[in-house]
Amino acid sequence: MDYPQTGAIIQIHSYKHDGHIHRAWKETVVLKGSEDEVIGGNDRTLVTESDGRTWVTREPAICFFYAEHWFNIIAMIRPEGVYYYCNISSPYVWDGEALKYIDYDLDIKVFPNGQYEILDRDEYERHRKQMNYPEIIDKILKNNIQKLIQWIKEKKGPFAPEVVEHWYKKFIMYGK
């Protein structure tokens, strides 16, 4: 599998199951690129929504994308601690233009104290019916929610405090 190289500045594109663009982040610095995962950092990057509206992210974020897991994790670094926004999504693909994934609506927000909340269940159900998510996709996504909750509870991967700190220091070295 091809993947973006460490040090590259890439775009991230999020799609919906029906193939329509959902959201695009203009600039993310690749902190680690491998066949298994891509870790990136951004701060105050321009985000374009599917309807053309734009906004700019407010804080530094370290983003974790996986080739085999059906989720990605955004660690937002704020003065009061690290907040995580976890998208239930397809594994990433890299086509040389952007890192791309399908956003499947369900999200988990994790607070600095470790508490978490599952978001957008209604949106997921609505889109599941509208876009005819195959039953196997529904099963994969629900299994990955459980896997993600285990990671949160066990402080595995990006949920281990030293992991985000390590990658944030690397991001700062790039001067972004």
UniProtKB/TrEMBL annotation:
Cofactor section: Mg(2+)
Keywords: Hydrolase, Magnesium, Metal-binding
UniProt GO MF annotations: magnesium ion binding; nucleoside diphosphate phosphatase activity; ribonucleoside triphosphate phosphatase activity
Annotated positions binding Mg(2+) 2: D105, D107, D120, E123
Domain DUF402: 18-156
EC number: 3.6.1.15, 3.6.1.6
Catalyzed chemical reaction(s): a ribonucleoside 5'-triphosphate + H2O = a ribonucleoside 5'-diphosphate + phosphate + H(+); a ribonucleoside 5'-diphosphate + H2O = a ribonucleoside 5'-phosphate + phosphate + H(+)
SUPFAM superfamilies with a match to the protein in the record: FomD-like
Active-site residue numbers: R23 (proton donor)
Residue numbers binding Mg(2+) 1: N87, D103, D107
Family, per entry: Belongs to the Ntdp family.
Function: Has nucleoside phosphatase activity towards nucleoside triphosphates and nucleoside diphosphates.
Name this polypeptide is given: Nucleoside triphosphate/diphosphate phosphatase
